[in-house]
Amino acid sequence: MNSIRPYTGADEAALLALWAAALPLDALDTAAFRRRVLLDPNVGPESLLVAESDGQPRGFVLAIRRREPFGDLGLQPEQAWITAFGVDPAHQRQGLGRALFDAAEGQLAAAGVRRVAVAPYIPGYFVPGVDEAAYPAALAFLAGRGYEVVQRPVALDANLVTFDYGPYLERGARLAAEGLFVEPLAADWLPAFLRFAETDLPHDWLRDARDLLAHAPLETFTIARDGARVIGYCQHRGEHFGPFGVSEGYRARGVGKVLLATCLRAMRTRGLHNAWVLWTSDETAERVYGPLGFRETRRFAVLRREL
Ligand SMILES: CC(C)(COP(=O)(O)OP(=O)(O)OC[C@H]1O[C@@H](n2cnc3c(N)ncnc32)[C@H](O)[C@@H]1OP(=O)(O)O)[C@@H](O)C(=O)NCCC(=O)NCCS
């Protein structure tokens, strides 16, 4: 007998085992699961559904809509995100995935949702979408349900240990001659940085920057400034590099590469051996990250469907 029901606290161990079996590259430990799923203010009792057969959890889907307004975007009442789903490999092709999605999408439609995206939920996505190489069954399953691929971002990784940043940092001297300075964020420039973040960055990047600045040293940020005006930045959180942005009027002058090289070298001085980026375009991967040693490790399909 199959049934679909909301997650309960007693499911945790079985659900995490199921998650690891269905999504081996994206398994979570209990701390991450509680923090990133159960404690997410947008996750309500109806967001995480479990498929049972023979009294055992065999599948799950996490479908989120906003319960808290998100900056200028508010509640986005017509939008929802499916950020993770899976069926135990031993119980696939028995209709559990279909039953889970029928229930989740039905619930969302009844709540007024018109569009569902897999999986770019800001701020809490695990990965941008379905990993094309790791999870081809999910792509076939979603295509069958009318989901369309709208973007194919890549994740990149770089080893920092032996990379020669010299040539990229020399460009920094050339930029300085033009009045553009790339340097670690220091107290003197914090107000100017916050002004830049308010005017030039998407709401989520501003929120993310504020959050990080409240907890991490200023120098985990690298800024670019034109005199007293901040015109670009990047940040790192441990080995995770990004976000990374340059104001529109200053692009294509090499500022981005110098920001990246300056930050990667600083990361190495902090004992880090690697850097990774979870979401970028082919163009940026090739033009900016590739020359600094980054290589593609995963490619994701971001999918959408109108309900
Ligand atoms: C995607 C997934 C959840 C499907 O679960 P499932 O219970 O096997 O799906 P269903 O049995 O309900 O399949 C419904 C339809 O989807 C399609 N489908 C499912 N798996 C497929 C596969 N491996 N190849 C081709 N089509 C497939 C078929 O049309 C199927 O209908 P059919 O069996 O009558 O032909 C499952 O393959 C899975 O857990 N994959 C790993 C997890 C994952 O990749 N998640 C996405 C990451 S965000």
Please provide a brief summary of the model:
The protein is α+β, with helices and mostly antiparallel strands and 307 residues long.
Task: Report on this structure.
- The chain has 307 residues and is of the alpha+beta class.
- It has two domains: 2-150, Gcn5-related N-acetyltransferase (GNAT) (Aminopeptidase, 3-Layer(aba) Sandwich), CATH 3.40.630; 162-272, 3-Layer(aba) Sandwich (Aminopeptidase), CATH 3.40.630.30.
- The protein has nine helices and 14 strands.
- Strands 1, 2, 3, 4, 5, 6, 7, 8, 13 and 14 form a ten-stranded mixed beta sheet that branches. A four-stranded antiparallel beta sheet has the order 9-10-11-12, with helices on both faces.
- Strand 10 (221-226) and strand 11 form a beta hairpin.
- The longest helix is centred in the middle third of the chain and has 15 residues, at 96-110.
- The chain is elongated.
- It starts with a strand and ends with a strand.
- Coenzyme A binds next to strand 4, helix 3 and helix 4.
Outline the fold blueprint.
Blueprint: E1 2-6, H1 12-22, H2 30-38, E2 48-53, E3 56-64, E4 79-87, H3 96-110, E5 115-118, E6 130-131, H4 136-144, E7 148-151, E8 154-159, H5 166-177, E9 180-184, H6 190-200, H7 203-215, E10 221-226, E11 229-237, E12 240-246, H8 255-269, E13 274-280, H9 282-289, E14 295-306
Parallel strand pairs: 4-5
Antiparallel strand pairs: 1-2, 2-3, 3-4, 5-14, 6-14, 7-14, 8-13, 8-14, 9-10, 10-11, 11-12
The chain binds coenzyme A (COA).
Morphology: elongated
Beta-strand percentage? 25-35%
CATH-level-4 superfamily name of the largest domain: Gcn5-related N-acetyltransferase (GNAT)
Rounded mean pLDDT is: 96
Task: Extract low-pLDDT stretches.
Answer: none
CATH architecture of the largest domain: 3-Layer(aba) Sandwich
Please provide the ordered H/E string of secondary-structure elements. EHHEEEHEEHEEHEHHEEEHEHE
Distinct small-molecule ligands in the complex: coenzyme A
